[in-house]
Amino acid sequence: MYRRASTQVGEPGLRTVLDEEAQSLSLVIAALQDQIRSHEGTPATRRRVLGAVRYRFDAMLPRSDDAWIRLLARHEQSLLRSFERVITRVGAGDVEMKAELHRQLPRLHSIDLDMHSLAKAIGVGH
């Protein structure tokens, strides 16, 4: 969604920020997929049906820069909460996975902070 937003927003600086956030999320995803593969697992490559439908609906609508920021801030906050829940659910026996999740958490916090700052700048509560 960040990649789509970065091509849709009008403000060049915002385009750059959103593209950088998309790159950061891609790195997080790649690292987690590698961790799963290292345990001979198969990482998920698709969303759940409801999430996919919501994503397509959200991404289809034409949006102003402010609307993109609101949407991405909401999704980012949800992603961060989900990620933190997963960390608490990973068993103590899977030390490597828990460590990888903790390594990625600062990246997600940074993205969430960026989106929170952007949302605050346009006058939206996050």
Average residue pLDDT: 85
Instruction: Count up the helices.
Output: 5
Q: What does the main sheet amount to?
A: none
| Helix content class | over 70%
| End-to-end distance | 18 Å
- Give the CA-based shape: globular
Beta-strand percentage?
Answer: under 5%
Unreliably modeled segments: none
What is the C-alpha radius of gyration, as a whole number of Å? 16 Å
DSSP strand count: 0
Order of H and E elements: HHHHH
SS-derived structural category: mainly alpha
| Overall domain count | 2
Task: Offer a concise description of the structure.
With 126 residues, the chain is an all-alpha fold.
Task: Provide the descriptors you would attach to this structure in a database record.
mainly alpha; 126 residues; 0% strand; 2 domains
Summarize the structure in words.
It comes from Dyella choica. This is DUF2383 domain-containing protein. InterPro entries: Ferritin-like (IPR012347). The chain has 126 residues and is mostly helical. The chain has two domains: 61 residues, no CATH class; 64 residues. It is 78% helix and 0% strand. It contains five helices and no strands. The radius of gyration is 16 Å and the shape is globular. The protein starts with a helix and ends in a 5-residue tail after the last helix. The mean pLDDT is 85.
